[in-house]
């Protein structure tokens, strides 16, 4: 009986506490900007998800600690664990959107695909930074989704362009594409196949099922048999280190193995170590800590014990990816405040901010990130841009930039994106579009 | 139609004949995977024999064992001592599971015990993430004395590359499988285990301690999990994704039977060889990635002819 009373008491206290907590957000909504972060620090993809979550969280927390938020308004940051699972991602979305969310960063193409139709209904934009559905770059057809600085299609075209610039061109070559067999991995295949016809190269598709991420020996024996001239990888989580190890095992020339920017984390290459020497991946921002903003993160967040990151991992590639994503969020909020005059913005104003985002070199220098990334500009019609990327190479211990910044094949990709966007909205008569001048 | 038949029934065999070195390489990869599958399956079989329950937590035990080892070595504990301490952790886990999960559920339906192992799975995931974090770790192969090089053999007009780590993995798996098979077939405890598997109450009535048997099998399953975690973790990395690999033992169990130690060994090897050969020679015909479902397909074919599994006991019920 006593136990029963105690249990009831705890339950009541929990309900009351929960009510107070959930009530805190709406009542304070006017003096804060609520940013839910759909992250994953658990499960098979935690290796990739954790450093990104740390970077995202730490930059936004630094703005709160150093500047008191953005434009005098504090940021309310709340992480929701998705485990890289689309169903859990939607649950996170539904559970947080009512708290005044201004933007969602799904960190999964699968979750992004689920949220794209919800964004115009709930008036909360989606920022799938460098991932998601490539066609959402067409802002006139997808007013509520943004995927700057470049789509998967742009990125694939950039890798193909890079290969074309090596060893006498890509024509007549065989290009292997090993990918995680989910929405994310399959996304660039239509473009790859079209480019193969246009540019005269052969494609070898090597899908890796989610259950086989750490069991890729037969996939790489396929590569050994087919002898592709180059291998491109769209991997994530545990797939990445296994693929690099297996490639080394069959003696695939590492300098001809190029990963997408989600297959280029320190955490992906550390297990391979020296064996991964020569492996390349694309990137759209720098690594390291030699930036004012990152030093501020260390000073105001990490050293104060407000972060979950191990200090030695600050500046790693995926950590800086999270920082980069947080910079886009913060700069879009700032832009939204300037454009609309509203300080405690909502999703509606955030959309304006994202659509007018103009991260110039000067602005990057002002925020302590000079040279961290190439300038990024988003417009009404182009929600991604085809911003330049560069190639980095693993030296056994860390990444080195081995190419200049170069642009994707915009002239080939943009018409395909427009066609794909039109195809997507074709059978949705009520779909919200916009006219861009 | 003719082309399809050729691609399915002729071409793969032509490929085997024209590149026998690759066939040998595929068979070697299948053998290494097969021995590790057999090892994982053995963990399931031991627990199923003793308690009639499919241990859903076996996969996370693999992760937990490997993470404990990496964590201890990272703290500066010498590798040998770390392994001994991990064996101790597995013993403590076995004791706790018996005391806190199984004993209160004696005489409950098997499905209740199964649900309890699902709960245990989530508890261990949470505990593991709390203690070790979700980030993947690198297995310190050098400190553990695991080899990392490879041997090249010029055979059959081609090259076969044998990773020394794979040889070590296969050797560890074979030794453990053989050792456990002998232990549970030839010793007094093994006979007691078989008695428990046949009838809990009859075993109790002749003085066999159910609790002790459960502790022993859970400890053995823990050792198996630790060995699998070390070897598979060294082949890729130590992350929570390893638990998915452990579930590859399911088709092995379907094929070999849930109660047969020889079944786990033979089933593991059949699945190991089968999935690699199928993925390599027939996978490209259907766009690849058939390794995820082919083992189940193979197991179902066996089930058509032997519903109790290859070595499972035939169930005869009075009606």
Question: If you had to describe this structure to a student in words, what would you say it looks like?
Answer:
Chain A is an alpha/beta fold and 437 residues long. Chain A has 2 domains: 32-151 and 287-387, 3-Layer(aba) Sandwich (Rossmann fold); 153-286 and 390-415, Response regulator (Rossmann fold, 3-Layer(aba) Sandwich), CATH 3.40.50.2300. Chain A has 16 helices and 13 strands. Chain A has a 7-stranded mixed beta sheet with strand order 6-5-7-8-9-12-13, sandwiched between helices. Chain A has a two-stranded parallel sheet with strand order 1-2. In chain A, helix 2 links the parallel strand 1 and strand 2 (74-81). In chain A, helix 2 (46-67) packs across helix 12, helix 2 (46-67) packs across helix 13 (317-340) and helix 3 (86-96) packs across helix 4. The longest helix of chain A has 26 residues, at 2-27. Chain A starts with a helix and ends in an 11-residue tail after the last helix. By secondary structure, chain B is mainly alpha-helical. Chain B has a domain at 26-244. Helices cover 72% and strands 4% of the residues of chain B. Chain B is built from 14 helices and 2 strands. Chain B has helices at residues 2-18, 20-51, 58-74, 79-102, 110-132, 141-144, 164-186, 188-198, 200-205, 210-235, 242-246, 249-256, 261-282, 294-305; strands at 150-155, 158-163. Chain B has a two-stranded antiparallel sheet with strand order 1-2. In chain B, helix 2 (20-51) runs antiparallel to helix 10 and helix 7 packs across helix 8 (188-198). The mean pLDDT of chain B is 89. Chains A and B meet through helix 2, strand 6, helix 9 and helix 10 of A and helix 2, helix 11 and helix 13 of B.
Brief characterization of the structure:
Chain A has helices spanning 2-27, 46-67, 86-96, 109-115, 118-122, 152-164, 183-186, 189-199, 217-226, 239-249, 266-269, 292-302, 317-340, 347-355, 361-366, 410-426; strands at residues 32-39, 74-81, 126-127, 145-146, 174-180, 202-208, 230-234, 257-259, 280-283, 358-359, 376-377, 390-394, 399-401. Chain A is built from 16 helices and 13 strands.
């Amino acid at each position: 009986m006593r136990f029963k009373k105690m249990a009831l008491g705890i339950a009541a206290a929990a309900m009351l506490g929960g009510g107070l907590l959930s009530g805190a957000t709406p009542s304070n909504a006017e003096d804060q900007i609520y940013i839910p972060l759909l992250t994953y620090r658990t499960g098979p993809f935690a290796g990739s998800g954790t450093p990104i979550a740390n970077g995202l969280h730490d930059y936004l927390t630094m703005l709160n600690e150093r500047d008191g938020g953005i434009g005098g308004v504090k940021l309310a940051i709340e992480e929701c664990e998705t485990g890289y699972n689309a169903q859990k991602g939607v649950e996170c979305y539904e559970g947080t959107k009512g708290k005044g969310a201004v933007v969602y960063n799904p960190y999964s193409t699968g979750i992004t695909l689920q949220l794209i139709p919800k964004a115009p209904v709930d008036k909360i934009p989606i920022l799938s930074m460098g991932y998601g559905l490539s066609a959402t770059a067409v802002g006139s057809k997808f007013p509520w989704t943004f995927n700057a600085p470049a789509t998967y299609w742009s990125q694939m075209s950039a890798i193909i362009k890079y290969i074309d610039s090596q060893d006498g061109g890509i024509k007549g070559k065989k290009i292997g594409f090993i990918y995680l067999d989910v929405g994310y991995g399959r996304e660039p295949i239509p473009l790859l196949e079209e480019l193969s016809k246009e540019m005269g190269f052969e494609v070898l598709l090597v899908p890796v099922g989610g259950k086989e991420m750490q069991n890729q020996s037969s996939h790489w024996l396929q590569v050994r048999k087919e002898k592709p001239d180059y291998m491109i990888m769209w991997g994530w989580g545990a797939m990445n280190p296994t693929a690099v190890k297996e490639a080394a095992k069959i003696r695939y020339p590492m300098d001809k193995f190029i990963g997408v920017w989600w297959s280029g984390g320190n955490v992906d290459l550390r297990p391979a170590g020296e064996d991964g020497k020569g492996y390349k991946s694309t990137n759209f921002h720098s690594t390291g800590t030699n930036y004012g903003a990152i030093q501020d993160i260390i000073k105001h967040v990490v050293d104060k014990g407000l972060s979950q990151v191990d200090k030695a991992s600050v500046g790693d590639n995926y950590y800086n990816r999270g920082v980069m994503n947080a910079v886009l969020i913060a700069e879009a909020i700032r832009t939204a405040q300037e454009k609309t005059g509203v300080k405690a913005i909502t999703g509606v104003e955030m959309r304006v901010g994202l659509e007018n985002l103009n991260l110039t070199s000067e602005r990057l220098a002002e925020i302590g990130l000079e040279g961290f990334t190439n300038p990024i500009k988003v417009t009404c019609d182009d929600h991604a841009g085809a911003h330049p990327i560069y190639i980095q190479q693993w030296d056994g211990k860390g990444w080195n930039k081995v190419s200049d910044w170069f642009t994707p094949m915009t002239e080939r990709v943009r018409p395909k994106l427009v066609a794909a966007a039109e195809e997507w909205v074709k059978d949705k008569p009520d779909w919200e579009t916009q006219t861009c001048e | 139609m003719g082309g399809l038949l050729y691609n399915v029934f002729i071409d793969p065999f032509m490929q085997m004949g024209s590149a026998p070195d690759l066939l040998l390489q595929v068979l070697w990869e299948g053998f290494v995977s097969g021995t590790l599958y057999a090892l994982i399956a053995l963990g399931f079989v031991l627990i199923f024999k003793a308690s009639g329950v499919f241990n859903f937590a076996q996969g996370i035990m693999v992760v937990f064992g490997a993470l404990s080892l990496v964590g201890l070595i990272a703290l500066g504990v010498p590798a040998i001592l770390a392994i001994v301490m991990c064996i101790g952790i597995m013993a403590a886990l076995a004791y706790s599971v018996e005391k806190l999960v199984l004993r209160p559920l004696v005489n409950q339906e098997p499905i209740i015990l199964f649900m309890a192992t699902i709960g245990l799975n989530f508890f261990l995931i949470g505990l593991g993430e709390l203690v070790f974090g979700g980030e993947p770790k690198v297995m310190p192969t050098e400190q553990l004395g695991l080899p990392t090089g490879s041997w090249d053999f010029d055979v059959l007009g081609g090259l076969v590359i044998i990773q020394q780590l794979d040889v070590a993995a296969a050797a560890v798996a074979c030794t453990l499988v053989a050792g456990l098979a002998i232990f549970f077939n030839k010793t007094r405890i093994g006979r007691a285990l078989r008695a428990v598997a046949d009838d809990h109450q009859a075993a109790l009535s002749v003085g066999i301690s159910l609790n002790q048997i459960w502790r022993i099998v859970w400890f053995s399953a823990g050792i198996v999990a630790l060995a699998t975690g070390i070897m598979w973790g060294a082949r890729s990395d130590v992350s929570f994704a390893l638990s998915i690999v452990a579930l590859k033992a399911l088709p092995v169990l379907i094929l070999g039977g849930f109660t047969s130690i020889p079944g786990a060994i033979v089933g593991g090897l059949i699945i190991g060889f089968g999935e690699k050969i199928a993925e390599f020679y027939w996978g490209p015909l259907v766009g690849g990635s058939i390794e995820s479902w082919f083992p189940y397909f193979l197991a179902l074919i066996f089930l058509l002819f032997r519903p109790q599994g290859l070595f499972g006991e035939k169930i005869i019920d009075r009606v």
